[in-house]
Amino acid sequence: MMQTEILQKPLKGCPNFPREIKLNNHNDSSLMIDDTDTGNDTDRRINPTTNGPVSKDVITDEMVRNKAFRWCQDSIGGAWLHLTSEKDLQIEPVGGGMSNYLYLITLPKGKHSSRGEPEQVLLRIYGQISKSTLDFLVHNSVVFALLAERKLGPKPYGMYHDGRIEEFIKAKPLKPEDLCKPEVMVMVAEKLAQFHSLDMPLCKKPRWFKSLVRGWIRDIQNNLDSNSVTMSRLQEKCPLFNMDTEFNELLKMANDLNCPIVFCHNDLQGGNILLADKATPQTPRMTIIDWEYGHYNYRGFDLGNHFNEWMFDYTMTDKPGFSFVCSNFPSKEKQFQFFKTYLKASGKEEITPTDLVNIYIETNTLALHSHFTWGVWAMVQAQTSSIDFDYSIPGPPIDYSEYALTRFDSYFKLKKCLPQIIAEANS
């Protein structure tokens, strides 16, 4: 999910609800969504599995060094070409990668740039979940390259089918306590407005949520043994829980809201927001990174997902590898402050109370979709993500099963409270 600072270890239903948005009505045939509009953006799986366990990530020290050596020599050249052995490289794992494996690669001492090439780069090796579909790989590369060309993201040095070499930005990632600071809120809101206005050469329909999440659900259903404990605990929390039914409900809710479709980051949490002490000609004050999930989507998803991430801290060194504080979710007042900046930066000259209520309902409704997405994602990660470093330093990686349960618990609670949230917004 993100690039953060270098760490000392590798990462391892309710009657009052508006009639047009239906929840907890599991027998309603209107929840069956027309799924024919998939075009060329279907979930085209690479080496699809119909039954049995899916492939797990296998990342070793030898593999990392080999890729770093080959890719840096092939793609950067200069001083990197004068290295005689992969053992010369300085390699440090970069904490925070939850979908991919990240490493800071540095030239050995005494070696310096010969023609302006970087002396440090970031090596990104895609995890299984990032390379499971053809569309994901293509979109990831296209988005990354275009944002870099527009100077809105890190520079690419080498792009490969299973990873890439990219610019390493020397700035600090934000922590949950930073996200609520007025200055940071303004910058994030303005950045989101900027990205949401981009015209990208991708499908302009909101197929990202539908196709990607559906593919993850299929992975879970094809590997029920790997998820039996998590599914059992979910059934305890919600006896009527059915992943397909919930997903169809969410699709209908998003469709009924008729919210704007924009180019979204879809994973805007603190670790993906880098803040420098000051802007330079080469680097802006704030940089948004890790666009693996960047695609056209419901605007409310991006906004709601960002607010959801105020509650999560992924820098914890104790089990389960993250912390969750429900009270950190921004209040209505804070959200309105954010929306005013966002709408103004989006070019809206006069912002009315109705504008704020509408985007508030949109955001808090699609926050539900965010929790569901990352709950499903975490269940797939639990069965595919692994850490196998020869230089492993003690410390637990994120417990994906526990993270999935936390996300779904938040999903159930928000689903129960959403009618009241909407009613109070309209009052």
Automatic annotation (TrEMBL):
GO cellular component: cytoplasm
Entry GO MF terms: choline kinase activity; ethanolamine kinase activity
Ribonucleoprotein found in the keyword field: no
GO biological process: phosphatidylethanolamine biosynthetic process
Name of a matching Pfam family: Choline_kinase
Key words, A-Z: Lipid biosynthesis, Lipid metabolism, Phospholipid biosynthesis, Phospholipid metabolism
Entry-linked InterPro entries: Kinase-like_dom_sf (IPR011009)
Region: Disordered, residue numbers: 28-53
UniProt key word GTP-binding: no
Family: Belongs to the choline/ethanolamine kinase family.
Protein name: Choline/ethanolamine kinase-like isoform X1
Organism in which the protein naturally occurs: Biomphalaria glabrata
Lineage: Eukaryota, Metazoa, Spiralia, Lophotrochozoa, Mollusca
